[in-house]
Amino acid sequence: MGLLKGGINEVIATTGFNAAPMGIHYRDGKATMVLFSGSHTAENVRTERWLVANFIHDPVLYVRTAFEDLPRDMFVSEPVAGMTMQRLAGADAWAAFTATVDRTTAGTLIVSLTPQREIIENAIIHPVNRGFGSIIDATVHATRYVKNRDPELKDLINYHTGIVRKCGGKRELAALDILRRFIENRPE
């Protein structure tokens, strides 16, 4: 299996008909995740014991899946390891894992991932785009900001907004507009 690279791999994880941006930690040949207790992803992993990492280069989907549920027609069911798992229909590649909860803390689940299957759907090269990276970072900060309105997180979002505006393409700018609406429409 070779889709994951060393460090934290940003993917859109699917667990059933649920999708959310997640970071998969890959070090020394081992894949792990930290999931927030109470999230749909954490509950699905705890009960179903599987997860699919979707490698996708659409910044709009990263923002949408951070804040809303996708319609079922955006998922494809795949038979993997005797189970039926769901992946995103538009993924460039995907990797299916069985998942084991190694440890539970007050607010998180520490999960080990065991690879079961990898498929490259589209062999597409995506040049490095600082706007794309900054929309991912702004989205991560925004998921926390909408819960606690920490001014330091708002400053980080504004910093990454500037990079998206300077370096992003049309999809990154569209994702930024969506992100700003999610932030502004959340109650203080």
UniProtKB/TrEMBL annotation:
InterPro entries on file: DUF447_C, DUF447_N, Split_barrel_FMN-bd, UCP018747
The DUF447 domain, residue ranges: 9-121, 129-181
Source taxon at top rank: Archaea
Protein name: DUF447 family protein
Organism: Methanoregula formicica (strain DSM 22288 / NBRC 105244 / SMSP)
Lineage, uppermost ranks: Archaea, Methanobacteriati, Methanobacteriota, Stenosarchaea group, Methanomicrobia
